[in-house]
Amino acid sequence: MKSSVVAKQLIKVIITVARGKLNLVILELIRCGCFHPLPLEPGSRGSQHITNVRRLLTEVESLISRIDDVQEEAANYGITYTGEFKPPELRVRDWMKTATEVLSEAYVVVEEAEEAIKELRETLTPAEELAELYDLLAKYSFINFNFELFKNSKYIKMGVYRVPNERLGVFEDMINASGKIFGIIVSGVEEGFSLAILFYPSDAEVEVDKAVSEARAVAFRMPPGLPQNPAEAVKRLQARAEEAKRRLMELMPRLVEVKAKLEAVRAALRILEATRLTRLFAIITGYLPKELYPQIAKRLDEVTGGALSIYAESETVAAPEGEGGISEVKVPKLLEPFKDLVLMYSYPRPRELVPILLTAITFPILYGLMFPDLGHGLVLLAIGILAYMGKMPLFKGESGKKWGLMLIYLGISASFFGFLAGEFFGPHPAVAGWLNAFWHGHPPYASPVHPLALKAFQLISPEEAAREVTQLVMFTFYVALGFGSILLMIASWLGLINAILLGTRREILKVVARVLIFTGIALAFIIGGSIAGAAMIFAGVVFMDKMLHITLTPMQRLAADIIRTMIGLGLLLVFIEPIIHGEAGESLGMRIFMGFMEAFDMLLLMISNTVSFVRIMGLMLAHSGLMYGFTVLSLLICHTACSIINAFFAAIIYLIGNILTFGLEAIIAFAHTLRLHFYEMFSKFYEGGGIPYEPVVVRMPVRIMLA
Question: Domains in the chain, please, with CATH?
Answer without folding.
Answer: 19-122+242-326 (no CATH), 148-221 (3.30.70.2750), 355-684 (no CATH)
